[in-house]
Design brief:
Shape: extended
Radius of gyration: 21 Å
Order of helices and strands: HHEEEEEEEEEH
Oligomer: single chain
Structural class: alpha+beta
Number of helices: 3
Strand content: 25-35%
Length: 212
């Protein structure tokens, strides 16, 4: 895998990149069971509240999802560790939110704590509090496609059929914008669809190159 190893020397730091590398190179990836924790209310003044929830990690993780179950409807949530999935529209006041880690907050080591702090506002005079469900996104149980069966390739020093396939998959995982129907990386989705230049130019598409 000389060519593939050379490609990985480039500056790639997103969770998706490292997970893809581990899967393609056959590194064992373990996934922790879901954990549930309680929200700790650290401040509560009128309708405004601040909460904190911490979970102890027993394994290394490369990505996470947290489901926030509030005792009452809330809005205006602010935090800096993740991005909300399907954020509610203006005026909505749900009691459940789902968030996934920001790219630079996905990796945590075994023995560390994952602590989420946020603030928001209660709706209709509710009470602050609730629970959180932590999901480890390190592994989705997927495996890389079978190695191409190229006649004579296995007898060579390097299986260049395998090298080329995995190199192409590496770059497919870096694609930005609207992904095609034949996307082979099922945990990659459309991204950065609102990218435009100063004069409205369509800047969607292309490849991520530095994890930022």
């Amino acid at each position: 895998l000389v060519l593939f190893c050379e490609l990985t020397k480039q500056k790639k730091s997103t969770m998706a990149t490292w997970l893809l590398l581990m899967l393609l190179l056959g590194v064992a990836v373990t996934e922790a069971a879901d954990q549930t924790g309680k929200m700790e209310v650290t401040s509560n003044s009128g309708d405004h509240f601040e909460i904190r929830a911490c979970l102890h990690l027993t394994t290394d993780i490369m990505g996470w999802e947290v489901i926030l179950n509030f005792d009452s409807g809330v809005n205006g949530l602010q935090q800096w560790m993740g991005d909300f999935v399907d954020a509610p529209g203006a005026g909505a006041c749900p009691s459940q939110y789902t968030m996934v880690n920001k790219q630079y907050m996905g990796h945590k080591g075994a023995g560390e704590q994952l602590c989420i702090q946020m603030q928001g506002s209660l709706c209709a005079g509710g009470t602050a509090g609730g629970n959180v469900i932590f999901k480890d996104l390190t592994s989705d149980g997927q495996t890389a496609p079978a190695v191409p069966n190229v006649s004579g390739a296995q007898s060579m020093k390097y299986n260049y059929g395998e090298v080329l396939e995995k190199s192409l998959m590496f770059y497919e995982a870096q694609r930005s914008g609207k992904l095609p129907a034949d996307n082979r990386i099922p945990w990659r989705f459309d991204s950065a669809l609102q990218d435009h230049g100063a004069n409205g130019e369509d800047l969607t598409g292309g490849w991520y190159d530095a994890g930022d």
